[in-house]
Amino acid sequence: MSALRSDTRQKLAAASVSTLTNLMLKRGFRNAYMHGVVPLTATAANMVGPAYTLRFIPSREDIDTMAGYASEQNLHRRAIEECPSGHVLVIDAGGSTRAASAGDMMAARLKARGAAGIVTDGGYRDIADIEAVGLPAFQRQNAPPATPIALHAADLNVAIGCAGVAVYPGDIVVGGRDGVIVLPANLAVEIAEEAAGVAAYEEFVAEKIHAGRSMFGLFPATDDSRREYEAWLRAKTGR
Amino acid sequence: MSALRSDTRQKLAAASVSTLTNLMLKRGFRNAYMHGVVPLTATAANMVGPAYTLRFIPSREDIDTMAGYASEQNLHRRAIEECPSGHVLVIDAGGSTRAASAGDMMAARLKARGAAGIVTDGGYRDIADIEAVGLPAFQRQNAPPATPIALHAADLNVAIGCAGVAVYPGDIVVGGRDGVIVLPANLAVEIAEEAAGVAAYEEFVAEKIHAGRSMFGLFPATDDSRREYEAWLRAKTGR
Amino acid sequence: MSALRSDTRQKLAAASVSTLTNLMLKRGFRNAYMHGVVPLTATAANMVGPAYTLRFIPSREDIDTMAGYASEQNLHRRAIEECPSGHVLVIDAGGSTRAASAGDMMAARLKARGAAGIVTDGGYRDIADIEAVGLPAFQRQNAPPATPIALHAADLNVAIGCAGVAVYPGDIVVGGRDGVIVLPANLAVEIAEEAAGVAAYEEFVAEKIHAGRSMFGLFPATDDSRREYEAWLRAKTGR
Amino acid sequence: MSALRSDTRQKLAAASVSTLTNLMLKRGFRNAYMHGVVPLTATAANMVGPAYTLRFIPSREDIDTMAGYASEQNLHRRAIEECPSGHVLVIDAGGSTRAASAGDMMAARLKARGAAGIVTDGGYRDIADIEAVGLPAFQRQNAPPATPIALHAADLNVAIGCAGVAVYPGDIVVGGRDGVIVLPANLAVEIAEEAAGVAAYEEFVAEKIHAGRSMFGLFPATDDSRREYEAWLRAKTGR
Amino acid sequence: MSALRSDTRQKLAAASVSTLTNLMLKRGFRNAYMHGVVPLTATAANMVGPAYTLRFIPSREDIDTMAGYASEQNLHRRAIEECPSGHVLVIDAGGSTRAASAGDMMAARLKARGAAGIVTDGGYRDIADIEAVGLPAFQRQNAPPATPIALHAADLNVAIGCAGVAVYPGDIVVGGRDGVIVLPANLAVEIAEEAAGVAAYEEFVAEKIHAGRSMFGLFPATDDSRREYEAWLRAKTGR
Amino acid sequence: MSALRSDTRQKLAAASVSTLTNLMLKRGFRNAYMHGVVPLTATAANMVGPAYTLRFIPSREDIDTMAGYASEQNLHRRAIEECPSGHVLVIDAGGSTRAASAGDMMAARLKARGAAGIVTDGGYRDIADIEAVGLPAFQRQNAPPATPIALHAADLNVAIGCAGVAVYPGDIVVGGRDGVIVLPANLAVEIAEEAAGVAAYEEFVAEKIHAGRSMFGLFPATDDSRREYEAWLRAKTGR
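Above: the input entities. Below: the structure tokens describing the complete assembly.
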């Protein structure tokens, strides 16, 4: 499972998910954003971490009883105990919001164990309490019914689909106000570096636009605007 | 029409909708939660009350004129005047958000008459004003167009479907941050009692999880965790 | 392109979108509200302005490269530079949220140029930054992926469809907490006048309902309630 | 309940559903066609008959058991026994295809009792056997699961919505290759008469188009084309 | 992997999918039918066989190239070569019809290898050729684009979800005119036996209904109708 | 507007739409197939022709009257008279099936004028009569209501989106049993050539698979299988 350097984590936490979609497109990836998945709460910083995955399939009445759910072998519960610190638990619920992908107790335990966040293409129960716990959480729609009503945990940490995006264990998951994007593990460092530069350039552009400049010649960047930006950056950083 | 004991109302107001879905599942009910129906505003306490129902069908141009709408016989307007105090007006709009299930005037009048809240599987108009009125309100999506554009009130207080859930007059409707659940009238007292116990146990679990305990052995409860909880409860309540 | 008198603009800014759907219905228009389009942020006053339109079609890999996107001839970027002050940029994205209809830079530039707002039946990227910019913005769902992934700007300021509503350049677009409505340019003045009267009558009704009066005889208005209202209005305005 | 004159029935059986949507629009009705409802089998002649309605709501586990289903009071089964000869059974399934609106036995019994057809905004089970029975049947999508899994019969012969269209008992229901349309009972005779004239005119136009004439001046009809048509009709009928 | 006795296979091939949903409901299974999955072609006999499964996830541009697709390790192609004779290949495409779950070559090879059929909750390419091959095939909607455009084969013969139904390897899959149902392997023999009895009883009922009898007292069966049926059966079979 | 060489037309008519999606993918085009658009009737040969386009927007009650519809300036009717012989009329209905994109008279006139076919992302009226006319026609779902109920013709022969695919006037549109694909005009000749080769190779593969060969080593082609194919081809064609 991929480790994530702390400077990479910081740079991705400071990046906009939208900027990351651009940097992915530049590398030929058109399908890295999870359409329709939204944060429970707007957060100041992004959620960032390697993916630890859980795969649900539909439940079946003879297998998915509340009794079976209590077992220590239940993969849903094991996912919560085994998701490594700093990781994001990413759940393939097959898009189903008929039952909960997780609830407040699970969010609290993940938070206590140091998880970076939780993402599902289904939904959660106890929304207010998950917000109180403070674990970054992303979903499609509230889904309070008890998990066994519709979902059965079938696998831990295999490659999954989530909201139409491939997620391989260890991929770097970034979530913020705009939603969630998945970066291939081997590209995370270089994308994080490039994102930091983009953010600085966008600060420069925002200042100029605020002052009344046209977007033409500024965005996308031209050779001239690059030079102007570098001067602005030197002036600003004093280097 | 069912009355609702005030202690039952209080216990349900304190319960989580998600907890109630569990207590329903335990009794064999898998389809009591209204998928896709959300509160206009997050509220501190739940909305609780017996259901008073309104059934819409699609409107027809020769019948559903604004003139006909003004009549005192109009069932939409009668629903507002006849929904008993303490009750929740539950509206079957056939899922249509093409026209308003209600607006701010109706919400204000329901509030003045003591209604506990309003629920539709369609949507409302004058959202900001409904929020200002303070009546708990649940819907799928904003629907400002005038009611006769798409909806005709066909029945008062009959059994209806709302967002895929059966609602019989007098059923107990509970709504909160997670959405809306419908409890059969004859089960409301026992579910309210059990919910109070669940809430206390979950407070105990939350404390333990916060302190770093695993969910295994705590949730779902075991014989051991039950005993530990009872000691915790005695210590806490001094009894 | 229609100008918009400033008193008309003020009256529409004070009107409820729901009231405007009524006034449109009265004139035979049943399909002026954009279903499913919501504001990024609840705002105190409505967005009001004549429509300036942008039509997207799906992108094609050989035409819609990031390089082509940088061109000054790119209609997406020209739309931002050419949308007149006081106007609302209305975007036909064919309902697609696969890629961004606009982002924070574009919102900032529109704001700097005096645009009244932006509307799409798709979605935006950099949501938090668009909110910070303060330009009223309406969409269906977040859409951070870069525009060329799914959208190609095909036309400026032609008649379009947006969220199922016809929008002709110069139509008056009003957006608020309830969503967005489109008024034919030639009806804007008379509707604005009538809306002001409706708002006053509704204030009178709200006061009476708050005091415990039934809706019957008040809403819709009767001859009696009209007379009572006029007296109330004279008393209130001292005229 | 409306009777239906046999010449009216014949004329409507010969009319195209599309022609009937035009004649309804001419009278101000824009919402009489059931979108998404299709015939099981293409038929030579239309299904025509007054509506006899059945209203479903979602089922509930304690009420909708297979035992309860066997009761002679079960409204689903009573609908089959009570739908009058010559009528169309129209079912409001709330659009649900989670369980069967009817199956082959019910279709066979309706056929034996002389019903004109069956329509649902849900679906049927035993599709092949329903086709073998020969009762005209219209649905959205196959729905073989047993009815009590998702549906509870709540009312017989009340006003319902079906696929977004209002259906009042006795309304005249016409179904064919294009789908299903609902005519207000009081307009059926005049619409049937007018439809017969339209069909003859369209035969005239088809002949001319086949011979290479432009649609302009033929369709919609002009004064000239009307005169030409009348000559054509006299020549053809020898009158 | 479960074997399937040939008499069980024959009895299930003769059973209606709708009858099987009833026999599943009787055993507490409410969610065994694949909603929205239809046969390419109406067939005389049902498709019957144990499930061999293939799990797709969304594709990713760097992994899912046409070159990689040619590899003998490609699980999509291995599924076709490894699905045992007499089995049904059941594909979890996550409901995606953006790319083909299979095409005519694969259908031809499955047919040549003795497979019983193929099922996907996505769709196929080369529909006409699959029909010509004669392999029973069930899908949601045509999906001709090349598989790597949207799908990546991630697993062979694990538990999957398909169209909202849990499918465990070896479960017995039955498909016909009504669609597809999944029977737990351990129940297949007893359900096949019971289905044969139901079919005979339904033949008896159909004969009576055709002769004008009411459904009451016949369907569901009563003690009296059971006795009458047994006499009918003895008379018919001469035993 | 592009002409289409008759040998190119023939080769595309003989090609499978699925094969064409592969040849487009090979050239970097992932989004050329119109998802959800199906033929009214299965046809022996493909529909092939350059696109002539019609753009609809939503109708508005004051503009889209039946009277206005009769005008010779009506673009809907002009599209039928102006679509060149051999071309395919491709209609952007914004995906709306609320009203007809065309009907039998229009289909008959297009046929008489030599059009190659008609495609919409909405639907048609008079389905049976369109089939009788024999013009290849593709749609999403039947849509009999009169056009002005929901659609207004806004443009002729501009770039449009249709079912999520960009269509530029003159693009080559191919439709068959699998649905519809759009080829950029400048690629049509080379794709037609390559498709002819693919079809021959697939005939070779089908023969081998039928004889029991594995797909591995045959599909996708290898150097060995290419050589074997060439021998097979020489033997077959005697060259």
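Note for the figure: The radius of gyration of chain A is 20 Å.
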